[in-house]
Amino acid sequence: MEKIPNCEKCGSEFTYENGTLYICPECGHEWVKDPNSQESQQQQVVRDAHGNVLNEGDSVVIVKDLKVKGASSALKVGMKVKNIHLVEEVDGHNIEAKIKGFGSIMLKSEFVKKSN
Asked: Which residue intervals define the domain Protein YjdM C-terminal in the entry (predicted)?
């Protein structure tokens, strides 16, 4: 029987298999079994603050006041951001969006929730 690896993110030994993914129940991290497969490059799972899966072009709402470097004001709770773009994670920022008054900005998915 194949040994399931510990979580890549938190090191938990309680990971489990689900289709082509390994999943950690402790931190929620998901990764592809075979990192060289074509699926792994296409399968980027981004979740919001409540665990909902975010998709390209979704609208989100900011759930925490966020200070913006170089800006005189902050992004306020409840601000709606339309047409998000999912990108490769850079310092935890995995969403790119254009916000009126701020321009193009990078956001962390943990500070937004999916909007209807």
From this structure: 46-114
